[in-house]
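Problem 12. The chain below contains 372 residues. Write out its predicted structure in token notation.
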Amino acid sequence: MAVLSLLEVLRSAQMTDLAVTDNLNVVGFDDMPPPAQIKAELPLTGTGTDTVRNGRAQLTRILDRQDLRLFVVVGPCSIHEPRAAREYAQRLRALADEVSDALFLVMRVYFEKPRTATGWKGYINDPDMDDSFHIGRGMRGARELLLAFAELGLPTGSEALDPLSPQYLADLISWYAIGARTTESQTHREMASGLSTPVGFKNGTDGGLEVAINAIRSARSPHSFLGIGPDGRTAIVRTRGNRLGHLVLRGGGGRPNYDTVSVRLAEAALLKANLAPNIVVDCSHSNSLKDPSLQPLVFMDCVHQIKEGNRSIVGMMLEGHLQAGNQPIPDELSQLKYGVSVTDACIDWATTADLLRRAASELSAALAARSG
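Solution.
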């Protein structure tokens, strides 16, 4: 029997230690195609490129007060059925032209859902809605939908949740949100500093503004952090900072914060932090007390504030689908109701269209006065 050298003994001990200390709760590593591969399979075309560029440019002009319109991010709480999402997009695209004098419409396209405890994590993570987690297929499906919307000429907005997803999808998106649960995360602030879009930071789940304001300030600065490059390899990502961060009021702590007093306090907090008083009001979540039927009331309250002279509200968010309400995910997916949300309850299309037409009509004169 050969005698092991001291170096070989040490190496053997290190490997043994590694085997009993590393990845103890990991059961496997599945290959994920790199961003460059999926982008090559599903490339952005000239028409789509124009949609994304124009969408970002219009949103930037609104935030810089060069465009007096209000932008509205509207659509399903989450995307789970591509056919229904395409139908919604086609309807929204037609409505966008109708209300374009006063409103700039952006389709809400959320593929990832943060969960308080457990539950369906969204189309990218689990496209089959059966805990099979075919993430590669989900990512391709998400990109296919975003390409279809871009070809329609419809800009899209989404939540930046997984820090790797933007490398696969961000070239197709015109606006990003950072959710209430992740606004405090250093990882998401770093990611936002490198995104190519305006980014809305939601106030904390307790309703406080400090976390979101600190996030906006952080994202304006350059950052260096671990991420992935187009080839899928781990990389040190270095960013220049994103000046287009803004505040999203979504209520919290059991109360709304879209009212005149709350908006005025948010303006003061932003100005104190030397930030532009750019405010987006999310009509769902705590602002509607999770009752979708209250979303139109929240929206029109903000329209009234603008008519009374408010200049800080630059955008709104609505959760709407083809049909009203929501539904649980059944064991037999064929029993899913078409066009009904499987996450938060939504208002239906008719309510959405009527609301946006009414808001556009009432805002036309009021927005012109904002130029002063």
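Discussion. The longest helix spans residues 349-369. Students who got a different answer should revisit the alignment rule from Section 12.3.
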